[in-house]
Amino acid sequence: MAHSPSSSSSSSSSSSGALPLVAVCQVTSTPDKQHNFKACAELVREAARLGACLAFLPEAFDFIARDPAETLYLSEPLGGSLLGEYTQLARECGLWLSLGGFHERGQDWEQTQKIYNCHVLLDSEGSVVATYRKTHLCDVEIPGQGPMHESSSTMPGPSLKSPVSTPAGKIGLAICYDMRFPELSLALAQAGAEILTYPSAFGSVTGPAHWEVLLRARAIEAQCYVVAAAQCGRHHEKRASYGHSMVVDPWGTVVARCSEGPGLCLARIDLRYLRELRQHLPVFQHRRPDLYGSLGGPLS
């Protein structure tokens, strides 16, 4: 299991021990939910031992199924047994958990027979602090990479979620494909986000081409830390993911990253550095909504 404590070079003026430490967990989910839970729990416990206050898990941390029918069969409501296990894990470890993409049977399950891709934030008591349901569904066909038709089993979420205060800073919740829509990240930043998180399961073609450059762009333009926990490796015979989980600071520097396989990386969040950067480069004061409109609608 690889882990590498890392912090922004800008943090040198501070006592690094005083800065909140976050852990980014990289896993290879399969259709076996209990196997996946054991792998995630091992990384979360390691993050707690290393002193993290918040651990981030990737999209589809619960499972990656072979087809839409299996996805629907394996899905659960938020009040089901799997979230109950994560509630206990957060409480046991005493840290917050970003559960980056849960296959959720919502209140409309009986009517729609479709689920939501739901990012769940738990506090250190195991309470659900926030839920964000993925608003941009990945329906794409990239040559050389298996087609994705997320909408065949999933409903788009109705709204963005207001940034949430955590021990590491104010977090704006998103999921994977959302990173291709800068309006979302800018709306979250204007609503007070200091950390943007993009739990993901990027493919083997789009990953090398777009993963790092998109994450760094979102960090620079929103002047936020970006935390991106990723799926890696082969999930089953039909699907593989790129990996390379990372943390990017508001200057666009990658301050922590995972390699190819399962493991975790660590980074310290320096909000004083973030505030200084925003003061030195006040792009949000220079925006021209009179020319290109204001950002986003109401956040819930």
Structure in a nutshell:
The protein has 300 residues and is of the alpha/beta class. It has helices at 33-49, 68-74, 81-93, 109-112, 182-190, 206-222, 271-280, 289-292, and strands at residues 21-26, 54-57, 96-104, 116-122, 128-133, 139-140, 148-149, 164-166, 169-173, 195-197, 225-228, 232-236, 239-242, 246-248, 254-257, 263-268. It has one domain: Nitrilase/N-carbamoyl-D-aminoacid amidohydrolase.
Question: How would you describe this protein?
Answer:
- InterPro entries: C-N_Hydrolase, C-N_Hydrolase_sf, Nit1/2_C-N_Hydrolase, UPF0012_CS.
- Its EC number is 3.5.1.128.
- Belongs to the carbon-nitrogen hydrolase superfamily. NIT1/NIT2 family.
- With 300 residues, the chain is an alpha/beta fold.
- It has one domain: 4-Layer Sandwich (Nitrilase/N-carbamoyl-D-aminoacid amidohydrolase).
- The protein contains 8 helices and 16 strands.
- The chain has helices spanning 33-49, 68-74, 81-93, 109-112, 182-190, 206-222, 271-280, 289-292; strands at 21-26, 54-57, 96-104, 116-122, 128-133, 139-140, 148-149, 164-166, 169-173, 195-197, 225-228, 232-236, 239-242, 246-248, 254-257, 263-268.
- The protein has a 6-stranded mixed sheet with strand order 5-4-3-2-1-16.
- Strand 12 and strand 13 (239-242) form a beta hairpin.
- Helix 1 runs parallel beside helix 3.
- It is globular.
- It starts with 20 loop residues before the first strand and ends in an 8-residue tail after the last helix.
